[in-house]
Design a protein that fits this description.
This protein is mainly α. 74% of the residues lie in helices and 3% in strands. It has helices at 13-38, 40-44, 59-89, 92-116, 126-139, 142-157; strands spanning 48-49, 52-53.
C-alpha cells in the first residue's frame, strides 16, 4: 500500500474493459436511435397500439409514440453512460447496478426468444446479448470487485 492508501491502487483492466463495453453498449444504442430517426416514416408505419397498426392510419399518433419511445431510450442511454463513469471511478454500487442491468437485458432477450419465438441473430439481439455477457464477466471479476471495495473503504475513511 502506498502513502496515499487505496486511492492510488491501479484500476484493473477488467474494470476498464467493462466500462469500455458499457460505452460500446451506449454507442450501439445511439446508432439504433440514429437509424430510426433517418428512416422515421418506415418505422412509424410499423407502430402497433392495442393490437391495431396505427402507423398507416394515424401517422401523427404513430410518430408521437415513436418519439416518446426514442426519448425514453435516449434517457436510459444517458443514465447508463453516467453509470459507466461511476463504475470507472470505483463505486461498488454502480458496478452491481451495471451487472444487474446486463443480467436483466439477457433475461429479456431469453424471454423474448422462448415466449415469442424471436430469433437471436446478428440483426436482432445477438450483439447486445454478447456485450451484456462480456460486461457481466468483466465487472464480476475478483480484481474489479476488490478495486471497487477498496475505493469505497477509502472514501468512507476520508
Amino acid at each position: 500500500m502506498t502513502a496515499g492508501g487505496p486511492l492510488l491502487v491501479k484500476r484493473p483492466s477488467s474494470l476498464v474493459g467493462g466500462v469500455v463495453l458499457m460505452g460500446v453498449r451506449v454507442l450501439t444504442g445511439a446508432v439504433a436511435i440514429l437509424t430510426v430517426v433517418l428512416s422515421w416514416q418506415s418505422y412509424a408505419a410499423t407502430i402497433v397500439l392495442g393490437g391495431e397498426r396505427i402507423g398507416r392510419g394515424d401517422p401523427q399518433t404513430a410518430g408521437l409514440v415513436l418519439g416518446w419511445g426514442l426519448a425514453v431510450y435516449g434517457l436510459y442511454l444517458a443514465l447508463y453512460l453516467g453509470l459507466a463513469l461511476l463504475v470507472l471511478r470505483g463505486h461498488n454500487w454502480s458496478r452491481v447496478v451495471a451487472m444487474s442491468f446486463a443480467s436483466l437485458s439477457i433475461l429479456i432477450s431469453f424471454a423474448d426468444y422462448s415466449l415469442n419465438g424471436a430469433q437471436i441473430t446478428l440483426r436482432t439481439s445477438l450483439v447486445s446479448v454478447t456485450i451484456d455477457i462480456l460486461i457481466l464477466l468483466a465487472l464480476s471479476s475478483a480484481s474489479a470487485r476488490h478495486y471497487a471495495r477498496a475505493r469505497g473503504k477509502a472514501r468512507a475513511g476520508r
